[in-house]
Amino acid sequence: MDQALARVRGWIRAADRLVVLTGAGVSAESGVPTFRDAQTGLWARLRPEELATEEAFRADPPMVWDWYAMRRAMVAQVQPNAGHQALAAWAQRHPGRLTLVTQNVDGLHQRAGSPGVLALHGTLDQDRWLEPPRACCHAQPPQAGRPPRCATCGNLRRPAVVWFGEALPPGVLAAADEAARRCDLMLVAGTSGVVWPAAGLAHAAAARGRVVVLNPEPTELDAVAQAVLRGTAAHLLPALLAEGDDA
Ligand code: OAD
Asked: What is the atom index within ligand 1 of the atom nearest the CA of 49?
């Protein structure tokens, strides 16, 4: 393992263009449950696949709104961990070399101080209108409620995250795709690699550069990786990105 770590550290030192793609596992050690881990995953208890859809929201807006309120409250109580911090510190020491792409909506990379995070699935702390807003929606603050609504036309506020079946924000996806295609090295940390198009970014990176998977468990993306490091994000990211190894 030490040898594998040293080899990947060398690749990081040599990389002019580094991309890091993160998933729920990167926040696990902050206390945010992942989506698919048996026992602790949010899906095991709450079946998010039935809550995180426009259909579910339209069928029962208060239920889905309350579920997001619970997730927001949970995320507000946790802190970025050593993995988030190592990424933010490396980016600050090496301006312009790292593109951080995350599937996470928890905002922990941003809170750790990572600049220019490409949040493929949006962020939990923002809302938007369910229907295209009319003049009345903008004319007054939304009326409080679960969810808040336009007092005139009834348009509802919804979390500005990407739900199942929805397109990713096109500008964010295009920027992530370009970074993946051009990078020398991509680190893929804490993601099962089962959700596309996010997983496709690792395939795009592998066409030109190296891919390294950081995960305690096997993933769908191990097959495209030149190296797989078995361990947790809060351990491996600091071990790989420590200041003493800087180019
Ligand atoms: P998953 O829950 O599918 O996968 C979490 C991954 O993290 C698994 O591979 C775990 O082995 C790994 N893991 C667990 N603990 C870890 C640790 N301490 N350090 C590193 N890795 C660890 O989460 P994602 O791959 O992020 O999308 O899921 C992708 C998307 O699926 C989410 O963004 C969400 C969901 O649908 C939307 O909400 C649109």
From this structure: 36
